[in-house]
Amino acid sequence: MKKLTTSILAGLTMLCATSCLGSNQMFNGLNDWNQEATGNRWGNELIFLGLNIIPVYGIAYLADIVIFNSIEWWSGEEAE
Q1: Cβ of 47: how many Cβ atoms within 10 Å?
Q2: 43 inside domain
Q3: Of 1, 4, 71, 72, which residue is 20 to 30 A from 15 by alpha carbon distance?
Q4: Residues 6 or more apart in contact with residue 37 via CB below 8 angstroms
Q5: Above 80 in pLDDT, residue 10?
Q6: With 0-12 CB in 10 A as exposed, 13-18 as middle and 19+ as buried, what is 59?
Q7: Looking at residue 71, what is its pLDDT?
Q8: pLDDT category of residue 42 using cuts at 50, 70 and 90
Q9: Taking residues 50-57, what's their average pLDDT?
Q10: Which range has the worst mean pLDDT, 10-14, 32-36, 38-42?
Protein backbone atom coordinates (compact mmCIF):
# COMPACT_ATOMS: atom_id res chain seq x y z
CA MET A 1 0.00 0.00 0.00
CA LYS A 2 2.86 2.36 0.80
CA LYS A 3 4.47 1.70 -2.59
CA LEU A 4 1.18 2.41 -4.37
CA THR A 5 0.74 5.71 -2.52
CA THR A 6 4.33 6.69 -3.26
CA SER A 7 3.91 5.81 -6.93
CA ILE A 8 0.71 7.83 -7.23
CA LEU A 9 2.30 10.85 -5.54
CA ALA A 10 5.37 10.59 -7.75
CA GLY A 11 3.19 10.38 -10.87
CA LEU A 12 1.13 13.40 -9.83
CA THR A 13 4.29 15.35 -9.06
CA MET A 14 5.69 14.57 -12.51
CA LEU A 15 2.43 15.65 -14.16
CA CYS A 16 2.31 18.90 -12.23
CA ALA A 17 5.99 19.70 -12.72
CA THR A 18 6.07 19.53 -16.51
CA SER A 19 5.86 23.32 -16.81
CA CYS A 20 3.28 23.19 -19.56
CA LEU A 21 2.42 26.86 -19.43
CA GLY A 22 -0.46 27.97 -21.53
CA SER A 23 -2.39 31.16 -22.05
CA ASN A 24 -4.93 30.41 -19.27
CA GLN A 25 -7.58 32.15 -21.33
CA MET A 26 -10.54 31.02 -19.26
CA PHE A 27 -9.05 32.17 -15.95
CA ASN A 28 -7.70 35.42 -17.42
CA GLY A 29 -11.03 36.14 -19.10
CA LEU A 30 -12.86 35.67 -15.81
CA ASN A 31 -10.34 37.91 -14.06
CA ASP A 32 -10.61 40.60 -16.75
CA TRP A 33 -14.41 40.51 -16.54
CA ASN A 34 -14.28 40.81 -12.76
CA GLN A 35 -12.02 43.86 -12.90
CA GLU A 36 -14.54 45.68 -15.11
CA ALA A 37 -17.81 44.22 -13.78
CA THR A 38 -18.77 47.41 -11.96
CA GLY A 39 -17.40 50.92 -11.91
CA ASN A 40 -16.69 50.51 -8.21
CA ARG A 41 -13.63 48.69 -6.91
CA TRP A 42 -15.49 47.61 -3.76
CA GLY A 43 -18.20 46.04 -5.89
CA ASN A 44 -15.56 44.21 -7.90
CA GLU A 45 -13.97 43.01 -4.65
CA LEU A 46 -17.30 41.61 -3.44
CA ILE A 47 -17.75 39.80 -6.75
CA PHE A 48 -14.20 38.47 -6.46
CA LEU A 49 -14.82 37.17 -2.94
CA GLY A 50 -18.12 35.61 -4.00
CA LEU A 51 -16.51 33.86 -6.95
CA ASN A 52 -13.83 32.48 -4.63
CA ILE A 53 -16.33 31.28 -2.01
CA ILE A 54 -18.31 29.45 -4.73
CA PRO A 55 -15.03 28.14 -6.20
CA VAL A 56 -15.56 29.64 -9.68
CA TYR A 57 -11.98 30.93 -9.83
CA GLY A 58 -10.60 27.58 -8.67
CA ILE A 59 -12.64 25.61 -11.19
CA ALA A 60 -11.70 27.97 -14.03
CA TYR A 61 -8.01 27.71 -13.16
CA LEU A 62 -8.13 23.93 -12.79
CA ALA A 63 -9.95 23.58 -16.12
CA ASP A 64 -7.34 25.78 -17.79
CA ILE A 65 -4.43 23.84 -16.38
CA VAL A 66 -5.77 20.32 -16.84
CA ILE A 67 -7.91 20.59 -19.97
CA PHE A 68 -7.39 23.70 -22.07
CA ASN A 69 -3.62 24.14 -21.64
CA SER A 70 -3.16 20.44 -22.40
CA ILE A 71 -5.19 20.83 -25.59
CA GLU A 72 -3.07 23.85 -26.55
CA TRP A 73 0.13 21.94 -25.90
CA TRP A 74 -0.87 18.76 -27.76
CA SER A 75 -2.32 20.63 -30.74
CA GLY A 76 0.70 22.94 -30.94
CA GLU A 77 -1.56 25.95 -31.37
CA GLU A 78 -1.96 28.77 -28.91
CA ALA A 79 -5.56 29.86 -28.43
CA GLU A 80 -6.36 33.41 -29.45
Answers
A1: 16
A2: yes
A3: 1
A4: 43, 44, 47
A5: no
A6: middle
A7: 81
A8: very high
A9: 90
A10: 10-14
Q: Which residues touch 36 (CB under 8 Å, ≥6 apart)?
A: 44
Burial of 64 (0-12, 13-18, 19+ CB in 10 A): buried
- Establish how many alpha carbons lie within 13 A of residue 45's alpha carbon, considering only the half-sphere containing its beta carbon: 3
Of how many residues is the chain composed?
A: 80
63-71-69-10 Cα dihedral, nearest 10 degrees: 80
Range of the domain at 64: 20-75
Q: What pLDDT does 77 receive?
A: 65
Structural domain contains residue 11: no
Give the number of domains in the chain.
Answer: 1
